[in-house]
Known about the structure:
The complex is a heterodimer.
Chain A: H1 3-23, H2 28-46, H3 53-64, H4 67-70, H5 72-83, H6 89-102, H7 104-129, E1 137-141, E2 147-151, E3 158-159, H8 165-189
Antiparallel strand pairs in A: 1-2, 1-3
Helix pairs in contact in A: 1-2, 1-3, 2-3, 5-6, 5-8, 6-7, 7-8
Chain B: H1 3-28, E1 31-32, H2 33-44, H3 53-62, E2 66-70, E3 81-85, H4 87-112
Antiparallel strand pairs in B: 1-3, 2-3
Helix pairs in contact in B: 1-2, 1-4
Amino acid sequence: MTSSDIAAAALRADYLNRLDQALARVPHDLAADLRIELAGHLDAVAGGGGASPAEAMQAAIARLGDPEQFLAELIADDQVREASRGFAPAPLLRSLTRRAAVGGWRGLVAAGLLLTVIAAIALVLVGVLSPFFPHHVGLLEFADGRTTFGITSEAAARERLGLWRLPIGVAGGVMVWLMARYFAGRIAARR
Amino acid sequence: MDDTALARWEVQLRKGALELAVLMAMRSRDRYGLEFVEALRRLAGIDLPEGTIYPLLIRLIKDGWAQAYWSQPTQTDPPRKFYRVTPAGEAAIAAMLGRWRRLDAAMETLAGKDPFE
């Protein structure tokens, strides 16, 4: 075995290691298939020849591309789909942020859904915090005639919803959250 | 338009046509990942980062436009995942080609005369 063979084997192992790290976030069956396919692809291209085994492997790796990049959309969609099956907001927020960063039209939709989830959390907060901060949370009317809905640092002259803030905030937030969760699952499943 | 802008536009154009090209490459015979890359490069001049073909093939399967199966390994060949077009994929090809031709005809019309006359 020449030093170039050893270098080629090291390059291959490093690439497959990066591939495994990327595939760790893909469902197991799909990841197993992809690993076999991509390893076979790499070996076939590298086996096609080159100035040396190491250079051939380097060229094959360059042609295949960075797995984090070419699997980004697949991984991000899968994470959104998984997160949309549960009821915890944090995984959905994380997965939608990642999906939005990948881009494309679904990235734009993910950004919109991300804002929707944040709005849902804000609504629940309005409901939950209203008994503790009666002049800072709710449908607030200020002394200068301004009206605003939400949470402010400035104390309002009057709050218009009263005790309804709690059920409106919590129920509204949960409804918006469920809607965002539903559409996240639908969008992730689409092409 | 400078060369960079033109190249970017061409990349977008080819990207949009990629699914149709891959589906059509399955029509003549079942193929595996690397074969698609080589066929697209040789026959259609589409040169892509080769790893991108695999997420695309997964999408085609999810849409029901393609099916996959593993070949048995032989002494010379490793196991390979082959892809074949489904009847739904054939229908998708026909629909996409129809739209492609309409778009092509519209572009020819626009290129041939002043569209505002």
